[in-house]
Amino acid sequence: MGIIICQKCNCTIDHVEDNKVRTLYSTCRKCKKAKK
Fold it and tell me: Which is a Pfam family this sequence falls into (predicted)?
């Protein structure tokens, strides 16, 4: 199982089913909205 973390605020966005345990980085909706 993997986890998706916001690279701006470090909050957990989602969990993904995966054979390997890993951390993925993205940007959450709140941070994307603040950018605009």
Answer: SR1P
Strand 2-6 to 23-26 pairing: parallel
CB 14 within 8 A of CB 36: no
CB 11 within 8 A of CB 27: no
> Which residue did the predictor score with more confidence, 35 or 24?
24
Strands 12-16 and 23-26: unpaired
Residue 13 φ then ψ, to 5°: -90, -50
Q: Which pLDDT does position 16 carry in this prediction? A: 87
